[in-house]
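Tutorial sheet, problem 5. The two components below are modelled jointly, 1050 residues in total.
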Amino acid sequence: MLEAVLARAERRWGRSRAAVLCAVLGIGIRCAVGLFPYSGEASPPRYGDYEAHRHWSAVTLHQRPPETWYRYRVEYWGIDYPPWSAFHAYAMGRLAQWLGVADAVALSADGYESATSRAVFRALVVVNDAALFFPLSFGACHGQLPCFAFLTVLQPCWVLVDHAHFQYNCVLLALVLAMIATYRRWRHTCLAGAVLFKQMALYYAPVLLADDLHQRWTERQWWIDLGVGALLFGGSLRPFRPVDVLRRVFPFERGIYEDKVANFWCVFTPVLRRTGLLRSTRLPWLCAALTAMAAAPFAAAAWRTTPSPPTEARRQLCLRLTGCSLAFYLFSFHVHEKHILLPLLPLSLLITEHPEVVLWASTIASLSLYPLLYREGSAPAVVALTMALLLCAGRPASLYYAVPSLALCIALTLDWNPWRDRYPDLYPYLFALYSFGHLLALLLWCYRQCFCTAPPLKRSRRPLACARKASR
Amino acid sequence: MGGEGGAGARKRRRRSPGPPDHTARAMRARRSSNTAAPLAAAAALVCLFKVLLWRAPYSTDFGVHWHWKRQLAVQPLRQWYTEGTGAPFLDYPPWFGYWEAAWGRVARTLRIEWRPGGALTAAPAAVVAFQRATVLLGDSALLWGTWRLLQQSQFDDPPRLAWHAVSVWAHPGLLLVDHVHFQYNGMVIGVLLAALADWGALWQRRRSRDRKRPRGRATAGRAGRAAMLYAAAVCLKHTTALGVAPAVAAMALSVGAWRQPEVWLGGGAVLASALLPFWVSGRAAGMPARSFWAALLHRLVPLGERGLLHAYWAPNAYALLAAADKLLAALLRLAARRCPTGPTCTALQAWWMRAPLARNTAGLVETGGGGFRLLPPVTPRLSLLLTLCSTAPAASALLRRPPPASTARRTRDRLWLLAVAQCSLGYFLFGWHMHEKALLLPSILTSLACGADHPVSVLLNAACIYAMFPLIGEPSMRLLRTVLLLTYVLWVWPAAAPPPPPSSRQRLRLRLLLRLYVAVGLPLLELTQSAVPWSRLGLPFAPLLLTSTYTALAVLYAWVHLTHRLWCAAAAAAAIPT
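Model answer (structure tokens):
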């Protein structure tokens, strides 16, 4: 349905107006989702991610010299992202001051919550999204409306994490989109930016490393790109002591996973606990080994690529990035629920090529976020956005995974469900188990697409393909 | 919905097989089957967006409606309009009371409890979800009514029909008032639209069958249903439904529906179901009938308690008058202070001192009376007279010789919708104590009558949505309300058309006006609202005043335009030879 609507809108209004309408609609959805409670709303003494961001803004605004940022009150909400996040927090703090909530970003305002400051911080995330993520997704989609609408309006996951839970992943995602769009020329620069913003962009690094090893090292552009990336790294880390940053950014003492994340280690926790492996110091090494095994094929695919048309090259690249980051999500050390956004982003760019798989993965990903958002009181937003996604896609096949997912959500939500309170960990575990199964299947699908299939030559008769044809 | 319509069309075809009817109905059946699935999906999407607004900051109306739900579920009927409910008294007609009482019982069964304390104590999540869900369920009437009206109107192109439907279902004004501020306008408007669809169809049926088969069973049934639906709308919210009463009465006269017993039976049955239970319950308790009617009238038409203008000055003619009054008073005060000494000046100062204090500008307080400082006061009687005069063009257009059967269905349908829109606009412009929310119905009707992308409907709807902004003033809604307005304007903005022929200079001028008003004026106004420190200048209510006057100008313009258009359309229809 959506494709037909977009095609008609484009015919009638022209692409730019249709795209602007999509963008404005996306902004509206983000604002509406922002009405739901943020992470740690009205829950002293620790609060949640909202308080963390507020605190970072306060620290970066008022603490001098910058060298002390990574050592200031690390036991409360110390900065645990790389320097660009700190600079970004500073910029957001300045904007908040300019918008009249200077009290909220004072150093002594722990747990500051007011209607105005909430509105301002929520609006700042929306502004970041609209100013960075939206134009870059338009670029990364090569101006194709179905893809752009999917990224900005329909995909529920990053909307929920950024605007309900409260984070600034949109900046990271925008940098990754820039990396994908300019992969041949500026990938190191963009990846350096992304990693400097949030270290989890390193999930993509093996693919880039493999491409670097594979290619000829005589290209001038490649050296320039590498140099700019290195300069960015060096320049950004200069004000700080690298040891402080590294200690905060790679927190090995914080355990193998956070909450109930849908990865291998969480799902096999009962087994690991029985064998005593959970407390072992060998665990990080085991993680590294498993992750390397799972991700290596996607890196190795660099040597398999043959000269192909640009669309096929882009498809392969997105698949490899998806698979590699998904391997990290499933097997690496200290994974959050929100890290699912990393595999989801390159996969979402393939909406026109593999609509079924992308829809399936998006539904499962939003399901894996459900326990977190349910705890914060944003459950209606998750269900509404996911159902809207499935409705727009209008594919009956989606019932196979949508119905069990919805059943799980409802079971957790119902108040008279006696199991919910008797076994508080049961439902999050069930969610993790269910999502893990699907995500493992997605990983296998990525392997298959990368290695076992020829490029899809015949044009599929799906409406998305028709829409693409019509829009040309 | 669509399947039902298709089946109905098929049945009718069997009954009266005629060549022109056949093609038209077959086309309609095809149209409804083509549009049903995407329309259902669009309706579901709109509902899902409304779910996203569940946690939006609600107004005191939320507590008031919850209070009614709790109280009406347990109070006997005779006390509903007397002292039964306690402080915020029920000022809606009985059917709305039934609706609230039914939901109150459901809430009691589900054991959802909340005792609203102060003005804006936070309600528990279960209560919020329950209340928002009732609004969402009530909105199914909006879905149905819009569908009914669009199905038998002039939109042959299925995508265009769906586009129109979405522009009504997801009208940001409705979203803001119903799903954020908290009210049930969507439900009332939906029932009213369905009633208007039936009334319009009545005209067409009579015309198309002509005088050979004067009042078939179907026509009678249709007329009875139209009367019932309209009476139901009146019994749900009389302030909204009475706005189109002149047009409906004129239509009833025009098609001779007043001679049909079904109309009286249907309307009377609904009214009786609304009033009789109260009367019976009062009689059983020994309450004199007169005191009950007096109590009902006092609650439903509180002319003495409510002033000419609502708190935020809904953008109608009186807002313009009040603004002019303020301006004049300010000028006079300046003149009285600065004038050189002399007899003229003394007289001026004396006059200034004697001028009565205005009672309409107390900001948030609902004050009685319609007094201005310098202009003559407006009484309820004068307001009624003005309302009747302003809606007279619609009534007269319908009462003129109706368009003959040879005219296209589209022409007759458009004439009816134009008349209804003009009538409701006139009612809003000159009615007593109008709320901002009352502008929703005229705006929606205008967009249905002229097409949502006609410059006048875009102008009026943008003004209508902007007029709701003062109701939604919380910081967390500031960005969202602007984005909703922007989305709507982009959704309905006239598509880039080929260069207009030289004869359509009026249309060109309209477009220029639209551009100036919406694309330049509204952003500038919004900027001045936040950028100018009004409170520090001693003018805390200036933003409200600016909003009402600026939007009132658009409403006034739309009314003038619609009246002119209606006049031309009626004259053209009357000039067609039979």
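Marking note: Chain B has 22 helices and no strands. Full credit if you identified this.
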